[in-house]
Amino acid sequence: MKFPGQRKSKHYFPVKARDPLLEQLTHNPKPKSTYVCGIDQTLVDIEAKVADELLVRYGLPTGNSTLIDDDKAHALYIELKQNDLISDEFAGGTIGNTVHNYSVLADDKSVLFGVMSKHIEVGSYAYRYLCNTSSKVDLNYLQPVDGPIGRCFTLISDCGERTFAISKGAMDKLTPAHINERVIENSSALVLTAYLMRASGEDQITQAAMKAIELAKAAQVPVVLTLGTRFLIEEDPKWWQDFIREHVTILAMNEDEGEALTGESDPLLASEAALELCDMVLTTAGPLGLYTAGYTEESEKRETSHTLLPGAIPDFNRFEFSRPKLKRDCQTPIKVYAHISPYMGGPERIRNTNGAGDGALAALLHDLSANTFHKANVPGSSKHIRDGLCYSSFSQICKYANRVAYQVLAQHSPRLSRGLPEREDSLEEAYWER
Ligand SMILES: Nc1ncnc2c1ncn2[C@@H]1O[C@H](COP(=O)(O)OP(=O)(O)O)[C@@H](O)[C@H]1O
Ligand SMILES: Nc1nc2c(ncn2[C@@H]2O[C@H](COP(=O)(O)O)[C@@H](O)[C@H]2O)c(=O)[nH]1
């Protein structure tokens, strides 16, 4: 497990031989390992730059992720191919991307539940998916299926907005029987997407996800949900509110999804409203940067040394140096918020924003599982006298998530090809001393 993000003071984390806390580890030379697990629809992204006219012709609302039938998928693929519009084909899926990025950042294990074609030919989509997934993602629990994995036509408009057309193949065929109880119960977090709830007919991935959620809740494993697209939430915001209230610990959304869920267009107010449903929220807001929001115990709050920020909640970042806690672990819970503008103002050129939100969520997951890792290996640390949900403060998580989102944007693909640069030994320096 790597340290989550980069900072000068690493005194709490067992990363260096001279760290005094490491003494406790020497009795236990093999550190206890931690991992996160996720469930996804196994998808390959087929990326193409297209005119808005094509989206209209195929009935694809801009920014949405629409399921299309085989005939439409065939026609679309032929049109893209004949006009030489396809720029890339790589592994995708919002949770596949997130666990891959988690494993790259943490240099540690994650587990992915989903399906995989039984018979794989070299060069096929299934083959590409496996080749483009970090070797630290454990794929041994994938359910073998007859037929192809899904295809996600990722259509990029002139403005950089991405619109998805999903040809589902066998991606929704995961069954509850292929959810491994022990793996879920021993994980640091279970990560899901709202897309899992839209399976229909005989497809059972929704039931599989529900089984995993129940197992996670019973074992007190945090359930993390990312909302996917505002169109899905808009269909029935009340249903999603109830779902989140009942099942979700940490919610990740962008500002549009936040508005669809809460009715608040201001991402800060949307985050505040979402905190009535769950314990922690990550709200990304494109060029406005991102917010973290959550709870801490009144007596443990820590005041920021940064400038207090104006907004719909004045001075909302006052206690951003606090660590997130589960609401139920606070005697007197207070809401805490932090915000950060895009790292370095964003890359000079953004070809598309595909996967930037997934990148930010992977950073948050890394911080969360680093906390579990540290607690398992250095239980006597003063860090764990009070139960925290994450290793770092709201403010640090913002910085780290933002830095990772930048990396995804800069490399023009949703899956990190490598971790953050080692030379960047202090996030503070990277931020403020360009
Ligand atoms: N146009 C942009 N300029 C600078 N940074 C951006 C831009 N778009 C996204 N980002 C960065 O990527 C993060 C996630 O982007 P966003 O588009 O909100 O996520 P999603 O992919 O979930 O819609 C933002 O919080 C920000 O840090
Ligand atoms: N599991 C699913 N993933 C989907 C679906 N539609 C799109 N996607 C994936 O999202 C990422 C990009 O996410 P972003 O919102 O952060 O830009 C991309 O790689 C797609 O594969 C879906 O229906 N199910």
Automatic annotation (TrEMBL):
Its EC number is 2.7.1.73. GO terms for molecular function: ATP binding; guanosine kinase activity; inosine kinase activity. It is an enzyme of class 2 (transferase). ATP binds at residues 284-289, 357, 402. GMP binds at residues 40-45, 93-97, 198. It comes from the Bacteria. The keyword Magnesium applies. InterPro entries: Carb_kinase_PfkB-like, IngK, PfkB_dom, Ribokinase-like. Keywords: ATP-binding, Kinase, Magnesium, Nucleotide-binding, Purine salvage, Transferase. Pathway: Purine metabolism; GMP biosynthesis via salvage pathway; Purine metabolism; IMP biosynthesis via salvage pathway; IMP from inosine: step 1/1. Residues 134-294 form the Carbohydrate kinase PfkB domain. It catalyses: inosine + ATP = IMP + ADP + H(+); guanosine + ATP = GMP + ADP + H(+). One of its GO terms (biological process) is IMP salvage. Its cofactor is Mg(2+). Belongs to the carbohydrate kinase PfkB family. Catalyzes the phosphorylation of guanosine and inosine to GMP and IMP, respectively. This is Guanosine-inosine kinase. It comes from Shewanella gelidii. The lineage of its organism: Bacteria, Pseudomonadati, Pseudomonadota, Gammaproteobacteria, Alteromonadales.
